[in-house]
Amino acid sequence: MRGHIERRGNGYRVTIHIGYAEDGTILRHRKTLSSKKSAEKYLRDKLAELETEGSIRARNRETFEQFLARWLDVCARQRVRQRTFEDYCWVVGRHLNGTELGREPLTAVTPVAIQERYSAMMAAGTGPHGVRKLHAVIRQALQQAVRWREIGVNPALSVDLPRIKRRPELKLISAADFPRFLAAVMEEARLAALWVLALATGMRPEEYLGLKWEDFSPTMRKVTIVRVLVRPLKVTSGKPSGYFEAPKTELSRRTLTLDPPVILMLKQHRAQQAAEKLAAGPAY
Questions:
Q1: What does the pLDDT look like over 138-186, one tens digit per residue?
Q2: Which of 132, 158, 184 is where one domain is finished?
Q3: d(Cα 90, Cα 32) in Å, to the nearest integer?
Q4: Helical packing angle, 64-71 and 82-95, nearest 10°
Q5: Are 142 and 198 members of one domain?
Q6: How far apart are CA 77 and CA 51, in angstroms?
Q7: Rounded to whole angstroms, what are the CA distances from 60 to 6, 30, 103?
Q8: What's the domain range around 226?
């Protein structure tokens, strides 16, 4: 890696050879400074920086969306959970592929181009959360491109994100509403035990929908959450639209104690289910 300084009018121009493009063209970095001393210092500092980083390899024929597909396949797929990976694929396919930003060469992606894509998304009705989801993917992917020495800096770090509006307060069921809720769920006896369990424990839908009888203690007094039901935004992996996986954190994997009325309903539901299974035979 070499560089030189030459006099240009009233200043001094620094030229540094930083590598080659795929077609063999020499890539150069140039900067003009006012004094020879400042030019010499700039040359030393820049050469030291480039020696540390290595030559930036240009991939002029690879578009941004092609790079994202490569990053998703060889990097993100191995690093994140299946649900997260599928969400990444969905948000890229929905909001970036086929757009002007997606067709840009990777080496030509700028903060302005990214900002314009986000503005277009907002104008089309995408909310701040949707923009931020795409940004999370873009930022990670471009940071990997920097580590792979395919670009020099991450343009996503210089982008402004839309402000998140404060969410309205959750409306919680009150103690006075319990009797009406119970009366309503008892009208649909098949699912009454499920709704009572959800209300009594505060489980999330993905938690109580992931339960199996083996997760309950023999006396039904305790239940342990060991899996959740995942419903991807879009099927991208050939898996069914819903599947089970372990909870994200150890805190989510927990054991809850059940009250006697809940235990009674669960036992009744299990007995009903056993009778249905016996009546249906192999077709169950």
A1: 999 999 998 888 888 899 999 999 998 877 777 777 878 878 888 888 8
A2: 158
A3: 45
A4: 170
A5: no
A6: 31
A7: 29, 20, 12
A8: 175-278
